[in-house]
């Protein structure tokens, strides 16, 4: 009887693995087909733009020259905006590692996006002083959630920031301090004058990360709203994650139109934001279009939709980060992303258009942070497998950074 039972178990397991193998093959074919469609769309767009360029060239020969006019350029570069011209003709521009829309009005291979990230990384020299490579503020941390702000803050240091501040509640402060002596912890987030206490530090910060471990207490959310407003006045890059995104989904006007903001929603957070802004459910058959439309609705700020492949858009382009990670989905990975993004956003914004090849610096920063988080995940998973945790990923950030950007 026992032998029969064991044989049935073996047969069932074999059937399961055969089914799983078939499923993976089907998934691989689906991805290949999707990638082929994207390449075909890029080729079609290139042909259309080439035709438009040819038509414009012919017309310009027959039309008298007019005095030059000043153009309105966005602060991060001088790329020509083709959205209005091509919206009715083509799908959103998808850049996957090696394609971009250049000012020459044609599609051609661009330098590797990783090189753009490398360009904005400040060199390590003896001439720099403490704080110059990044002073990052993390707004979050309450009685229930102390790990998230720690992961974001320590990752910022591991990436290369010099100082990392955590603005949390009083009862979370001692716990977070005990995790690491490297962090500067301010127990002010639930105080009556929390906004003023944080505002005093804003001139010393290069970016703020809103949301890790924030929770949904009304007092904390109200104070966070004030901190966001004060940060916008200072022109500081703002990264919003976790419960910070829940706050934005309730009051999108808090951040709408502030193009120095980066939102990092997962699938559920993205759906909530999308429905709040566009009054429609997410179209599961058009992920690229959805992230593009949400960014546009939010005023062309940068959206990073985390998932099997990270989709990054500023309302004009869609970058796809499919760098290898792992299947492990332990808590805390989003906090590593937001912390690293706080540093890279500062570096990219400071570097200027020449270093980013005229690209939106926050797109470059987001691609770098997504790739780094995935690489850290991959390395940690190789060592620990199913038992991997976010702490294991933190330990891999340094070597992952070197492998991606310094070799």
TrEMBL record:
GO terms for biological process: metabolite repair; nicotinamide nucleotide metabolic process. PANTHER family: ATP-DEPENDENT (S)-NAD(P)H-HYDRATE DEHYDRATASE (PTHR12592:SF0), ATP-DEPENDENT (S)-NAD(P)H-HYDRATE DEHYDRATASE FAMILY MEMBER (PTHR12592). One of its GO terms (molecular function) is ATP binding. CDD domains: YXKO-related. Keywords: ATP-binding, Lyase, NAD, NADP, Nucleotide-binding, Phosphoprotein. This is ATP-dependent (S)-NAD(P)H-hydrate dehydratase. Belongs to the NnrD/CARKD family. The gene is NAXD. PROSITE patterns: YJEF_C_1, YJEF_C_3. It catalyses: (6S)-NADHX + ATP = ADP + phosphate + NADH + H(+); (6S)-NADPHX + ATP = ADP + phosphate + NADPH + H(+). It holds the Pfam family Carb_kinase. ATP binds at residues 306-310, 325-334. (6S)-NADPHX binds at residues 213, 266-272, 335. It comes from Athene cunicularia (Burrowing owl). The lineage of its organism: Eukaryota, Metazoa, Chordata, Craniata, Vertebrata. Its cofactor is Mg(2+). It comes from the Eukaryota. Residues 113-404 form the YjeF C-terminal domain. Its EC number is 4.2.1.93. InterPro entries: Carbohydrate_kinase_pred_CS (IPR017953), CARKD (IPR000631), Ribokinase-like (IPR029056). Catalyzes the dehydration of the S-form of NAD(P)HX at the expense of ATP, which is converted to ADP. Together with NAD(P)HX epimerase, which catalyzes the epimerization of the S- and R-forms, the enzyme allows the repair of both epimers of NAD(P)HX, a damaged form of NAD(P)H that is a result of enzymatic or heat-dependent hydration. It is an enzyme of class 4 (lyase).
């Amino acid at each position: 009887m026992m032998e029969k039972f064991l044989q049935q178990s073996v047969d069932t397991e074999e059937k399961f693995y055969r089914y799983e193998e078939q499923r993976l093959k089907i998934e691989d074919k689906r991805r290949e087909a999707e990638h082929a469609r994207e390449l075909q769309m890029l080729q079609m767009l290139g042909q259309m733009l080439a035709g438009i360029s040819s038509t414009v060239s012919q017309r310009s020969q027959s039309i008298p020259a007019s005095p030059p006019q000043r153009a309105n350029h966005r602060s991060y570069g001088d790329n020509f905006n083709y959205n209005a011209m091509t919206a009715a003709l083509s799908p959103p521009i998808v850049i996957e590692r090696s394609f971009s829309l250049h000012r020459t009005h044609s599609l051609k291979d661009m330098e590797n996006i990783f090189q753009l990230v490398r360009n904005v990384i400040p060199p390590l020299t003896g001439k720099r002083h403490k704080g110059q490579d990044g002073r990052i503020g993390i707004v979050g941390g309450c009685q229930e959630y102390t790990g998230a702000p720690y992961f974001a803050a320590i990752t910022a240091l591991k990436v290369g920031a010099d100082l990392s501040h955590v603005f949390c509640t009083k009862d979370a402060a001692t716990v977070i301090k005990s995790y690491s002596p490297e962090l500067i912890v301010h127990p002010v987030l639930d105080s009556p004058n929390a906004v003023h206490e944080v505002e005093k530090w804003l001139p010393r910060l290069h970016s703020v990360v809103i949301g890790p471990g924030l929770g949904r207490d009304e007092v904390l959310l109200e104070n966070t709203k004030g901190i966001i407003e004060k940060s916008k006045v200072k022109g500081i890059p703002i990264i919003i994650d976790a419960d910070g995104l829940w706050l934005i989904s309730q009051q999108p006007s808090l951040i709408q139109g502030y193009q120095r903001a980066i939102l990092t929603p997962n699938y559920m957070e993205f759906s909530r934001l999308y429905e709040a802004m566009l009054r429609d459910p997410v179209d599961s058959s058009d992920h690229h279009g959805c992230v593009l439309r949400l960014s546009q609705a939010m005023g062309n700020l940068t959206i990073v939709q985390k998932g099997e492949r990270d989709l990054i858009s500023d309302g004009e382009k869609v970058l796809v980060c499919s760098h290898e990670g792992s299947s492990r989905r332990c808590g805390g990975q989003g906090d590593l992303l937001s912390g690293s993004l706080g540093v890279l956003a500062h570096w990219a914004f400071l570097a200027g258009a020449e270093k980013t090849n005229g690209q939106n610096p926050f797109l470059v920063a987001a691609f770098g942070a997504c790739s780094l988080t995935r690489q850290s995940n991959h390395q940690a998973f190789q060592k620990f497998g199913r038992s991997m945790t976010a702490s294991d990923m933190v330990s891999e950030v340094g070597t992952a950074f070197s492998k991606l950007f310094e070799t």
